[in-house]
Amino acid sequence: MEKNIQLSDFPSKKFEDLKKRINYELLQGYQKKTTTKEHIDHWIDEFKSKIDEYSRENSLKELIKNDKDCKDFNYIIEQIKQKIYSLVNGPGEQHMIKERIKQWRENYFRINTDLTCKENDIYIKPQLKNLYDFCEDNIFIKEKLTEIKQSDKCQIIIDDISKRKDELKPKKDMFFRQITSTKINDIQCNPTILDNQFPFFKCTPRAEPNAIITNGEHVNSRESGEKLLPELHFTSGELPGGEQISPTIRGQTDANSNSSSNAIGIVSLPILGVLVSSFLLYRFTPLGTKFLGYFLNKADIPLNQEGETTDQMLFNTSNLSDTYTENIQYNLTYQKT
Fold this sequence. Notes:
Organism: Plasmodium ovale (malaria parasite P. ovale)
Oligomer: single chain
Distance between the termini: 122 Å
Helix content: 55-70%
Low-confidence stretches: 211-257, 299-337
Protein name: PIR protein
C-alpha cells in the first residue's frame, strides 16, 4: 500500500523529532530578563541526557548520513550556542557555556564512531540553509510526485512550499552572492529555482472505497435495490433533481414510439385481410356450405355410436313436430271460422 506522504516526511523536516526531544523550542522562547543561570544549566543537563536517550532509540547514522545532514546537525548545535550566549551576561559566562557544549560534542562523536560529521562542517552563511532546504524538498517532490499528488495532505504541502518560496524570493540576489561560500556535494541548488513556477502539479487524492457504497450496503443485493427504487420517482420529461429532458431526447423517444406503432399496424393488416376474406368465402359462396356439412358429419359420428339414445332423441323430436303441426292446423281452422 502506498504511503500517505505528509510534511513530516520531507527531508528538510528530518531533524524535527530530535528538536522536540531536546526541547529546542523551549530554549528559543527564553527571554534574557526572566531567564536565570539555573534555568540555563538545567536546560543543558536535560539536553545532554535527552539526546543520549534519542541516540539509543534511533540511529543517528541514518539521521546524519550525508553532507547536508551533517551541516543541518551542526546548524542546530550552533543555534543552541548562539541562543544561550544571548541569555548570559559577560564573556566569562559565555566562554564557560561554550566549553560545556564543545566538550559534550567531542565526547559524543568519540563514542559514536560510526558518525562522520566534522565540527567545522557548517553553513558559512546561515541564511543559505533555508535555500538548500527548499532545493532539497523540490528534489523530493519530483521523486515522489505521484504519491504526493494522491496524498490527502497534498494541499497542505503545496501551501507550505509556496509560503517558503515567497519568503525566500526577495533574498535571491543575496543568495547569488553567498552560495559560492557553501557547496553541498549531494544537493544541486541554484537561486534561480525561486523563479520556477510552483505548484507545477494538481492534487488528485485517492477516492475512498466507502464513497460509493456505505454502511455495508451492496449494489447487487435485493435489499439495496428495494431501497434505491423509491429514490427514482420523477415526472415525465424531468430528471432527478428537477432537470428537464432536452427536446432532442424527448423527440427521439416520441419517434421510437411512432415507429413501434407503425410496425404493429403493418403486421396486423395482412392478418385482418385474411380473416375478412375467410368470412366472405364462408358467407356468400358454396364453399361455406361444404365446410359446414363436413364439420357436421364429423360431429355426428359420436352421436350415432350411442344407438338407443339417438333413437330416443329422434322419437321425441318427431312427437314434438306432430304436436306443433296439429296446433298450426287448429289455428288455421279457427281463423277461417
